[in-house]
Amino acid sequence: MILAALVALISFGASAADAACYAEYKAKQDNPFKLHYNVAQISAPCTMASARAQLSSLLASQGLTLLKVLSVRQQ
Asked: Where is the signal peptide (predicted)?
């Protein structure tokens, strides 16, 4: 019982340190015109500015333009 609690505590600590960051965003495509809403995993730091920078380049390579980062959150 104690061993199971210790393993759970260690697992929780490792997962909290390795928490993933997700950004919720809106983007558009021009030809043909389409609006996109999605959530993407981004690398650290988990900030709005970092999300904008990472998503802008990622989306541009897919022919999309980032309109707005709605939120960022770590999980």
From this structure: 1-16
What is the predicted pLDDT for the residue at 12?
47
Give CA–CA dist 74/26, Å, rounded.
19
Cβ–Cβ under 8 Å, residues 67 and 36: no
**Structure tokens belonging to residue 61:** 């390579």
pTM to 2 decimal places: 0.72
Which positions ≥6 away from 56 have C-beta within 8 Å?
A: 66
Sheet holding 65-74, edge to edge: 34-42, 21-29, 65-74
What letter would DSSP give residue 35? Answer: E
